[in-house]
Design a protein that fits this description.
The chain has 6 helices and 8 strands; from the N terminus they run E-E-E-H-E-H-E-H-E-H-E-H-E-H. It is of the alpha/beta class and about 220 residues long. It has a single domain, classed as 3-Layer(aba) Sandwich (Rossmann fold). Strands 1-2-4-3-5-6-7-8 form an 8-stranded mixed beta sheet, sandwiched between helices. Helix 2 (about 85-100) crosses helix 3. This is Dienelactone hydrolase domain-containing protein. It comes from Methylobacterium tardum. Pfam families: DLH. InterPro entries: AB_hydrolase_fold, Dienelactn_hydro, Dienelactone_hydrolase-like.
């Protein structure tokens, strides 16, 4: 377990070292692309699932930092009654996490990305809108924050993965994000999984993983 500080609070990070990869970044001794992995509102309740995702990404050649950003507010999972007031604090912590990640030995600060799940994706959009070091976002069924929908900032290349039957974050968020990226002529892909809810299962989960690997390979590997 590693740590960094955000506004005086210690934030835990689970670090997964890149194991392999393709292209220039795969050579021994060279800096590797790196990812922040941001969990959803469930926090660490289902941490093993996030750790499995982190290990999978690391096996594909990315350093992965699984950030316990709820440490900023002392929570294990999101308290929905405080969601709006706590969101800016978590966003600040994720910005600090980007800076921390860029400084890690063996990390290529020019090839950083964020994999965000639900709330984690909303934080990714918010941070990437003002953080040019974020070069790619993987959006797993995340909401587009109202402020960003109004301000329409330029985002980095984004892969949107969403279920058509998501009752927690309606698929309209994915479509709104798609329109924003289209308007900006930003590289993006979108896949809406018919009948899937807030979370992907079965063949949809496998298809999403393959799309993530291709998208990150295109935008971060060998860049």
């Amino acid at each position: 377990m590693q740590h960094f500080t955000s506004d005086g609070r210690q934030i835990a990070v689970e670090w997964f070292t890149a194991l392999s990869g393709s292209g220039e970044g795969a050579r021994a001794g060279t800096a590797k692309p790196a990812l922040l992995l941001l969990h959803g509102a469930d926090g660490l309740i289902y941490a093993e699932g996030y750790r499995l995702a982190a290990r999978t990404l690391a096996a594909s050649g990315y350093h992965v930092a699984f950030v316990h950003y709820l440490d900023r507010t002392g929570d294990r999972r999101v308290a929905y009654s405080r969601l709006r007031q706590d969101f800016p604090l978590w966003a600040e912590t994720v910005r600090d996490a980007v800076a921390w990640l860029a400084d890690q030995p063996g990390t290529d600060a020019q090839r950083l990305g964020i994999v965000g799940i639900s709330l984690g994706a909303a934080l990714a959009f918010t941070v990437a809108a003002a953080e040019p070091r974020v070069r790619a976002i993987i959006d797993y069924f995340g909401p587009l924050p109202d402020e960003l929908a109004r301000e329409r900032p330029r985002l980095p290349p984004t892969l949107i993965l969403h279920g058509s039957a998501d009752a927690i974050v309606p698929v309209s968020h994915a479509r709104a994000l798609e329109r924003l990226l289209q308007e900006q002529s930003v590289a993006h892909e979108i896949r809406i999984y018919e009948g899937q809810g807030h979370g992907l299962t079965g063949p949809a989960q496998l298809d999403a993983a393959a799309r993530v690997a291709r998208f990150l390979g295109q935008h971060l590997q060998g860049a």
